[in-house]
Amino acid sequence: MHLLIPAAGSGRRMGSDRNKLLLSLLGKPLLAWTLEVAEASDYITWIGIMGQPIDFPDFEEILANVSLTKPVKLIQGGATRQESVYNGLQALPATAERVLIHDGARCLATPDLFNRCAEELFRFPGLIAAIPVKDTIKITDDTGLVQDTPDRSHLWAAQTPQGFEVKLLKDCHAKGRQWGWEVTDDAALFEKCDLSVQIVPGEETNLKVTTPMDLAIAEFILKQRVS
Ligand code: C5P
User: Fold this and answer.
1) Distance (Å) from CA 21 to ligand 1 centroid
2) Biggest alpha carbon distance in the chain?
3) What tens digit of pLDDT does each residue of 6-49 get?
């Protein structure tokens, strides 16, 4: 199965002036941890990484150190995650029927989660890893005034991997560009096209490393795993 890794973001919320995926986590760049998970997943046979060309020399160095057995392609990312995934989809080999998309910043996902998503993708045309929301969620107006409290039993925190039939997702992305839809994950495009998206149980530790606090938590979790 093909895997696309959006890795073309910046380190703004991390307070860093470089791509946060190049930051070191227990002596290895964040992206290296993510690639090792992809390498260890039985189902992944091809990896595309969307990045900004300025980061490609660093990506090449990471790839040299991780020594993957699977073919890897570096793909130019876009100005938004959505654009980066769009570019990734165009760069897939013509034979690709199903694709997993996994944020480079979720470096704590396990190969088991990848395998479960890959297996389920033979049963469902679209799916996402997600976990039940623990907090009570409030919906506010622009001034911060609470408008509603949705029933928590139906709320899920979306993660990646997200998986899709390639043809369907390509069509959804094309429609998104045509109609100017701006979304933060690929499942949202699927939903907008009235296609169903199945939840696959995600992992509580599969956090998206976004802030310096996340980096500290990720380090803690990885230390538990390697010790
Ligand atoms: O910024 P955020 O952490 O939400 O980004 C999620 C993932 O999307 C990250 O792995 C990031 O590198 C990627 N991304 C991208 N292209 C962008 C912005 C973000 O591939 N223009």
Assistant:
1) 9
2) 53
3) 999 987 777 888 899 999 999 999 999 999 999 999 999 999 99
Q: How far apart are CA 149 and CA 135, in angstroms?
A: 11
Q: Which residues line ligand 1 (CB under 6 A)?
A: 6-9, 21, 50, 77-81, 84, 103-105, 208, 210
Close Cβ partners of 93 (under 8 Å, ≥ 6 residues apart) = 2, 46
- Give the ligand 1 atom nearest the CA of 209: 3
Contact (Cβ atoms closer than 8 angstroms) between residue 187 and residue 158:
yes
Instruction: Using a cut of 0.85, tell me whether the model's pTM lies above it.
Output: yes
**Exposed e or buried b per residue across 85-113, where buried means at least 16 C-beta atoms within 10 angstroms of its C-beta:** bbbbbeebeeebebbbbbbbbbbbbebeb
Looking only at the bridges linking them, the beta strands covering 146-148 and 72-76 are: unpaired
Please, what is the end-to-end C-alpha distance for the chain in angstroms?
Answer: 31
Q: Are 125 and 169 in contact (CB under 8 A)?
A: no
Nearest ligand 1 atom, CA 103: 10
Strands (E), the chain: 2-6, 24-25, 28-29, 46-51, 72-76, 98-101, 126-132, 139-140, 146-148, 156-165, 198-201
Is residue 169 a contact partner of residue 99, using CB atoms and an 8 Å limit? yes
**Of 56, 42, 39, nearest in space to 107 by CA:** 39
Which one of 81, 106, 184 would you pick to mutate in the ligand 1 pocket, going by the greatest count of ligand atoms within 8 A of its CB?
A: 81
